[in-house]
Amino acid sequence: MSVFIVERGTPGLRVGEPLDKLGQRCAPTCEVFFDGCRVAASQRIGEEGQGFRIAMDAFDHSRPMVAAFGVGVHARCLEESLAYAQTRQTMGQPIIRHQLVAAKLAEMSTSLEAARLLTYRAAWLIDHGQRNTLAASQAKLFAAESVMAAATEAVQIFGGMGYSTEYPVEKLFRDAKVLQIYEGTSEIQKLVIARELQR
Question: Which residue in 8, 69, 134, 165 is a FRET match for 116, CA 20 to 30 A apart?
Answer without folding.
Answer: 165
